[in-house]
Design goal:
Order of helices and strands: HEHHHHEEEEEHEEHHHEEHHEE
Oligomer: single chain
CATH topology of the largest domain: Lambda Exonuclease, Chain A
Structural class: alpha+beta
Largest sheet: 5 strands, mixed
Shape: elongated
Helix content: 40-55%
Number of strands: 12
Strand content: 15-25%
Distance between the termini: 71 Å
CATH class of the largest domain: Alpha Beta
């Protein structure tokens, strides 16, 4: 389909301009002139950081291995989705800009004509997350915006994970459902970006909460710099780890001495008044290298070169606590 034919499928086409983008650089320039579906979550939850990006103060997220894989597999993901649901895939879709509010723009992965004739928005998502039936807020807001700007009522997520598992997730939106979100986008652009007036920056606690929310459920997450609070926690955690390692090393040394003495005196267990008990154990299948070396004509000194798990150990059961060594 040519641009005119694609635009004819969009109910709000008379209020939209189809912008020709030649390559990714053109697309980035056009995207930088406004805000779109992928920005809506940040308008609501991270306006200060988004303001810094839209006003050129920060470069913003440039992608990672996961997003690159999503771009590389987008065509096949959408094609297979269309085959799975029996839809006619429509792509590419031109970059769309609202003529009344030119700061509102949309870059759709595809449109599709469903078997019943309904035209829908389709967005490919390559993700390691298991949504477990709950659409993430970020995705809901993005699709709400796409349906609002196009005038369509239904969007489909063509979801794919690194193992190749595919899902088709439909989302329907009522007329006017996205109006509060569009109002927030208008306010952000006109009051903050145009007037170069920063939104209130997030508090440290809000930053931490937002960072944790973004990371929740992810197997792969974007790299992030540590905050002041994280630095304090890291110092405390490092101290705890050092203490634990030192304590374990000391416990292993003590238990080795106990095992040696119990073996020397032929004692299998020692009982304590509080219920604690030490039990001498021999590791199943272990090789006692010193006797073995001597039995085949080797030397005691030569047997020291062989390393491995100890042939015996102490199982120390303390009152209200179990631990093995």
């Amino acid at each position: 389909m040519n641009v005119a034919e694609v635009m004819a499928l969009i109910p709000r086409a008379e209020f939209l301009t189809a912008v020709e983008c030649v390559g990714r650089e053109d697309w980035l320039v056009e995207r930088g002139k406004g805000i779109g579906g992928s920005d809506l979550y940040r308008v609501l939850h991270e306006p200060y950081d988004l303001w810094r990006e839209k006003t050129g103060r920060d470069e913003g997220f440039q992608g990672n291995g996961l997003t690159e894989m999503g771009q590389d597999t987008e065509e096949s993901t959408l094609t297979r989705w269309a085959g799975d649901v029996g839809a006619t895939l429509i792509r590419p879709v031109p970059f769309l800009r609202d003529t009344v509010k030119p700061w509102l723009c949309a870059s759709l992965d595809a449109l599709a004509i469903m078997p019943d004739g309904e035209v829908v928005v389709v967005d490919a998502k390559y993700t390691t997350q298991d949504w477990r039936g709950d659409i993430p807020e970020r995705i809901y807001l993005q699709m709400a915006f796409y349906t609002a700007i196009t005038g369509l009522r239904t969007a489909y997520i063509a979801k794919r994970d690194p193992r190749g598992k595919r899902e088709s997730i439909p989302m329907s939106f009522a007329e006017g459902e996205a109006d509060p979100f569009l109002a927030a986008m208008d306010s952000f652009w006109l009051e903050n970006v145009v007037k170069d007036s920063p939104p209130d920056p997030m508090t440290e606690g809000e930053i931490e909460a937002a960072a944790l929310e973004r990371m929740k459920g992810r197997a792969l997450v974007p790299k992030m710099d540590a905050t002041a609070l994280m630095l304090v926690v890291e110092s405390e955690l490092a101290d705890c780890d050092r203490t634990m390692k030192a304590a374990k090393a000391r416990a292993d040394s003590i238990k080795s001495q106990i095992a040696e003495q119990m073996a020397l005196h032929g004692v299998k267990s020692i009982q304590f008044p509080d219920g604690s008990v030490w039990r001498y154990k021999e590791r199943a299948g272990s090789v006692q290298w010193k006797p073995y070396a001597l039995s085949i004509g080797g030397t005691e000194e030569g047997s020291k070169a062989f390393k491995g798990s100890g042939t015996s150990y102490v199982e120390a059961k303390h009152a209200n606590q179990d631990e093995d060594c």
